[in-house]
Amino acid sequence: MHLPFWLTTIALFPVLLYQGKRTRRITPRLPEAQGDNWGQYGEGEAGLSLLVIGESTAAGVGIERHHQ
Question: What residues does each domain of the chain span?
Fold first, then answer.
């Protein structure tokens, strides 16, 4: 007998909720890098602009300063 997906999800919801809250609580929060979060490579007028959203490497997580 196969249980419907929604019934299984409802039955497991307390376990999933506990795991999610515990994971958020014990996962370390790393600080972003200090300094200017923009820059330009080369000389002259910037020919290209790049917007990065939601990416920890673009925020500089794991380094001390952005110029690194």
Answer: 5-59
Contact 66, 60 (CB under 8 A): yes
Helices (H), the chain: 5-26, 56-59
Q: pLDDT at residue 44 above 90?
A: no
Report, as an integer, the average pLDDT of 34-45.
Answer: 79
Predicted pLDDT of residue 22:
98
For residues 65 and 33, the answer to whether their CB atoms sit within 8 Å is yes
The single residue listed with the structure tokens 């299984």 is 8
CA atoms within 13 A on the CB side of 55: 7
pLDDT surpasses 70 at 27: yes
- CB neighbours of 13 closer than 8 A, spacing ≥ 6? none
